[in-house]
Input
Amino acid sequence: MNKKNTLLISALLSALALTGCDDKKTESVTIEFMHSSVEQERQAVINDLIQKFEQQNPGVHVKPVPVEEDAYNTKVITLARSGALPAVIETSHDYAKVMDKEQLIDREAVNDVITGIGADNFYDGVLRIVKTEDGASATGVPISGWIQGIWYRKQQLADAGFSEPQNWQQLLSITTAFTHPDQKKFGIGLPTAESVMTEQSFSQFALSNGANVFDANGAITIDTPEMQQALGFYQQLAKTTLPGSNDIMEIKDAFMNGTVPMAVYSTYILPAIYSEGFAQDIGFAVPTEKSQAVYGTITSLTITAGQTDAQRDAAKKFITFMEQSDNATRWVLMSPGAALPLTKLVTSNSDWQNNPVVKAFGPLSMELVQQFANVQVFGSVGEKNFTSMGDITGSAALSEMVNAVTVGNKDVPATLAQTQGRVTNLVQKR
Amino acid sequence: MKPACQPSLLPAKRLSLGKRLKTDTAFAWYLLAPSMVLLALLVVYPMVANLQLSFLQLPLNPRLSDRFVGLDNYLSILSDPEFYHSLWVTFWYTALVVLGSTGVGLGVALFFNREFRFRKTARSLVILSYVTPSISLVFAWKYMFNSGYGIVNWVGGDLLHLFDQAPLWFDNPGSSFALVVLFAVWRYFPYAFISFLAILQTIDKSLYEAAEMDGANLWQKFRMITLPAIMPVLATVVILRAIWMFYMFADVYLLTNKVNILGVYLYKTAFALNDLGKAAALSVVLFGIIFIVILLARKRVTPHGNN
Output
């Protein structure tokens, strides 16, 4: 009887153990994917990609978390504090710096994905922009991007006897010639509002003159002769723009309705230009003085720290999947023309090449992608990418400085000195 | 010494649960319990947690350790000139908007409290600004006051030649402040209007007839009949609007960068500078201020308090 019981118990325990093993094998893992594509048609694309991924990876579930762009950073902060950050997050390289500084990014997992994709597949300059402060890792896996520069109407400039500006002085000559305030016509749509766009726009002029917010040792270098020249020029250039604080809305409206023949804007102006039918008449210039300085933002998919091993692996698989040629192409083509591809896997994809918006701009589409090599951003000095730049941008100190001298007509040297003190204090406090 | 008529509580201890439930106080507590639990979860806990956060320096990453900084966050706020500037701006913003929106709401309600053609349509139109999403209204106003192609500058400059150079409405701190106040008065007066119209309709018309027979003029009728009748609603409208405006953020933040009210200051501290501890301390300070203001306002508006 005892023997029988022993056998029975052994059989039950074995069955239980085997069941346990089986359970472990088919155990599913769910990860969240936070992105900013809240529009219905974009959500449909992302949900479709997720479905495809889940079919290829049984047991891995991806829960999309779409969040409005305006509330995005606020949401990241609140989720981070409550320890509930989604495993995969879409983020700009700017905000990724803030996240990396707070150790919210799983650098190792991100590096693994980039190694898997192959660093050679990314265009020149792309991985440099997403580097961490020590330059050893990346803050995310780049999936799309946009660049900013000076858009101009070729025919209008040619009719007035001008060609593409090659330096600051040429740019100012053109914008001055087109400025007739009595007729409500101005030379350029230039960001002057207290906004991130103004900081980005001004950074192009400063960096093209060799002025940066940090030096190689991490010291704040706002009050320098190079920065003073750049801010002084920006003040002069702003006299040929629309009066008042100009931001996204004002600049786009002015360029599209013909109030200005030139505008500092991102590639997100291209879909509107395509719709209005003057894609062939558009030119792209880069602020140039001592060097060329394109502004660009990289959108990455990043993996957050603190996930379980299973979630971490699932996140790596998911981003690798999203970076595959067809999938990354679908991601980029959610905003055709505006969002630029960052890998050769997309630019070689026939869907991207044959997209009507991409085709309408002809060789310009590829030229824009190659401009990532010329991207310079404040806070990036040589191989170093100072993460405190995220805090400085958040404080709006630089855009307030530009607004003060352009709209408020404040004195350039005094404003620079004041901003130097303010930013130094801010960085020390953090 | 207990009054003879009051039932003694001592025997109740010996009663069974069912019998104890029958006592009024216990029964009331049972009924209130779910609300009290909810209140504790949704109000008391966040308040206590916020108070706790205000003494810490918090990293965004909860796995990194917090640092106890004592009163540093409070001292940092109280030594920041920007805070006092924001407080001053917020005080005037709140006072002017409460006064304006309540006054306009009351005026329109008095005007609408009578029979006329298309009264229902007109009432619906009046509340339009209140029910439309803020973002749509903000964009409409930004377009209206745009320096280049706004209708206001077109009418004032091109049509009526009131000014040679179009004013930069949202760039000048003075005009920005005036516009955000105007915007808020226009946006929120329908709330006061609805509240006042409801109470005005309950006032007995015979009171006005009697006052007329006594020779009372319009102002005397308003002061002696209307005002006392609407006083409870007036107190509620003023207090609620004051609280809402004191904590206002979205309208002002979306309209201009030149009016740094406390809501904007708080938002920037928390989400632009990521200084969550200081932001928590700031909300404690704001709570203290608004608490005192409301207590004073209640005494002033309703001299007899709840009695």
Remarks:
- Residues 1-12 of chain B have pLDDT under 50 and may be disordered.
- The two ends of chain B are 28 Å apart (CA to CA).
